[in-house]
Design goal:
290 residues; four-stranded mixed sheet; 11 helices; 62% helix
């Protein structure tokens, strides 16, 4: 598995999220309610941890499938999980024509892998194997847990920031209790952006690592490169609407599910597809001939 100081990076990024949360708490009531913000952070972190195997499944309206219903998917996942020495995850299919796939779950024992109907119809079996190898490595690297908790805490920071911005504009409380309105306004504007950037930093790093580790697991980096190229075109033809549930789950998906105008390249939780493809092709010694 990939080992580019991921534990240290994750600890630093989570430290940044918690610093933002406590900084917001320090601005309210002269810091007297900072413990409330700390409790919110603990509760949100626990909720994101415990429910990380359910939120994305629910957002995509996915249903569990048996081996008889999805024999190729079962065969590939069983082969790859056996090769990795890990338990077989639960398998789901999402009834949407948008091509995508994701894994979820706080650990390999509570993991699930989901493919959309769109991706199953778009990719051949070799390409699907590359995608499923990528998703399994997200589980084995504990990426799903990290990104789910980061997304949950970042969401809380964003909500609190919006609440503080409202307070700074319309006032409330005594002059003694009220913090500096300029500091409050700046924090309420910058905190959600900073939380979003922290979440994206976690997600983008993990995508590159899962691409590389998944290609090593399957032994076929060009299969994943080919799948990513097809997914880029497939998502452009059949994007998902950016509803809040889907936005919250989008960082788990192998490809950003939205139209380019719905999410800019800078704000995407995924690295640029051409860079991911180039990295995979370099693993195989050169570009795919097409």
């Amino acid at each position: 598995m990939h080992n580019h100081f991921n534990g240290l990076k994750t600890a630093a990024l989570f430290g940044g999220i918690w610093a933002l949360l406590l900084g917001l708490g320090a601005l309210v009531g002269g810091g007297r309610f900072i413990w409330v913000f700390a409790l919110i952070g603990v509760a949100t972190t626990f909720y994101g941890y415990w429910n990380s195997d359910k939120l994305a499944i629910r957002a995509m309206h996915a249903y569990p499938v048996s081996e008889a219903q999805a024999p190729a998917m079962y065969r590939i996942v069983r082969e790859l999980s056996t090769a990795a020495g890990k338990p077989m995850p639960r398998l789901y299919i999402s009834p949407t024509p948008a091509p995508n796939a994701f894994a979820t779950g706080r650990n390999p024992q509570n993991a699930a892998v989901c493919c959309t109907e769109g991706i199953l119809g778009l990719l051949d079996e070799r390409e699907l194997r590359g995608v499923l190898g990528h998703e399994l490595m997200h589980v084995y690297n504990r990426d799903i847990l990290t990104s789910s908790v980061a997304a949950a805490v970042a969401g809380v920071i964003t909500s609190i920031g919006q609440m503080l911005m409202f307070t700074s504009m319309f006032g409330g409380g005594s002059d003694e209790d009220r913090p500096n309105p300029f500091a409050l306004l700046a924090m309420s504007l910058l905190a959600p952006l900073a939380a979003m950037m922290i979440q994206m930093a976690i997600s983008r790093t993990r995508e590159y690592d899962a691409d590389e580790d998944g290609a090593k697991l399957t032994g076929d980096p060009l299969a994943l490169a080919s799948a990513l190229r097809k997914l880029e075109l497939g998502v452009a033809r059949a994007p998902l609407a950016p509803s809040q549930d889907v936005v919250n789950a989008s960082h788990m998906m192998i490809a950003s599910p939205f139209r380019a105008q719905d999410v800019t390249r800078f704000l995407s939780t995924h690295p640029p597809m051409d860079q991911r493809i180039a990295r995979l092709e370099s693993m195989a010694g050169g570009p795919v001939h097409r």
